[in-house]
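On clarity, I found the account of how folds are encoded harder to follow than it need be. What matters is that the chain and its backbone geometry are given together, residue for residue. The format is easy to grasp once an entry is in front of the reader. For illustration, here is how one protein appears when written out as sequence plus structure tokens.
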Amino acid sequence: MVLSLPENAFIDPSGHNQAQISSLLKATADQILDYLSSAATHPPLPELDPLPLATIPDQPGDLAELLAPLQRIMTQSMNPAHPGYIGHMDPLPTTASLLGDWVAAALNNNMLSVEMSPALSRLEPQLMAEIAQMFGLGERSGGLLVSGGSLANLQALTVARNLKLNCLDQGLIGQVPPVILASEMAHTSIQKAAMVLGLGRQGVIPVAADAQGQMHPEALENCLQACLRAGQRPFAVVATAGTTVTGSIDPLLAIHRLARSYNLWFHVDAAYGGALIFSPDQSYRLEGIHLADSITFNPQKWLYVTKTCASVLFRDMTWLQDHFRISAPYMNDLADWTNLGEIALQGTRHGDSLKLWLALQHLGKAGYAALIETSYDLTRSMVDYIDQRSHLTLACTPAMNLVCFRSCPRALPESQWDRWNSHLQKELLKAGQVFLSLPWWRGQRWLKAVLLNPYTTKEHIGQWFELIDTLSVSVGTDLGV
């Protein structure tokens, strides 16, 4: 051991500094618990004070003393545990996933290969196969955990491109210009995937959505015909089950029929809405998802698993072997298990399967079904409050627990409504400790609520709308009109 290093720089595998490390871990655990247990008293989105300097010191520091600036960072971070944090798809984490993440970090295994993560490289494919079968993808299905939905969409569309265009080895040289079709409401990661795949942003053809924010099947077929007339080659269509702004779910069955008719890969971006498979009462909303060739599903959202925990699922895992896999000659091969880094975009990867497994074991299907139904109950309550106010309007009827609405006060000209809704967002956070996001939708500013937090109550919602009523009394004065 280098003498200049602190004695607690590592946990001594012979146990010589166990007591010292135990004290540090306990102090950190207490600090985390104190913060999370009082999260309701901290603002959902805090104002920033000067953070600790990001300079790297010349000499080692005292780890115990560093817990104080760590506290400052915690109190200036996004606070999804606050009942008023409802602006994005970021939930407070389950206790089990926190513990699983801590253990995975301590193990520090590499998901590149079975040799480097012998237990977790076996746990992940078994867990992914079970989840894929919950979606109805069949016995040959499975998947991979990845670091976010953007990578999941990229991996799915890479396999789709390689398989449909037979370009695993020679790429796109000499190909008719390939294109992907996706709703105009699809996540921006689809365009990013097209850039990485060599298609450019114009390689994603936007398909018009209807008033409910859902891809219109007739518009999809019109786009397909236009692509063919333009000499382009459609190879994949992306449906969305839970758009980012309104939570809309595309008509999956109708889109699949067209995908099959035009020999397209059918990918469903269910990063958010995929959790509905855990709800016997709400899973019908995903009708047709069992026909997908690939699915993006993020347990880090509606399953409350700590970030990052996202997945890409495939109907047939042999597609990865035949149309994606790059063998690593420096890794041992096992007859019954695949080195996951060879079939994934990522090589080195955190052991996210442990926290997901532990969270699922802890809450079970029934626990998640109850959380989802509670979310819908809150959604219905919020919609009722909106319907009772003539100056509030919904972007569309919620299909999930996302409520997108805006204030359109008659006391202001329509040209001022965006500014007014921006003002409402700031005042609600300041006076009511509720954070709503402020997305653009169809060229206008809207207020978005994502009713994920199990500690958000109908009483909270009522208080927020009372505050909206109070603020709306002085609508013209507040904006200086």
User: Anything to note?
Assistant: The two ends are 70 Å apart (CA to CA). Residues 127 and 396 are 35 Å apart (CA to CA). The first strand starts at residue 142 and ends at 146.
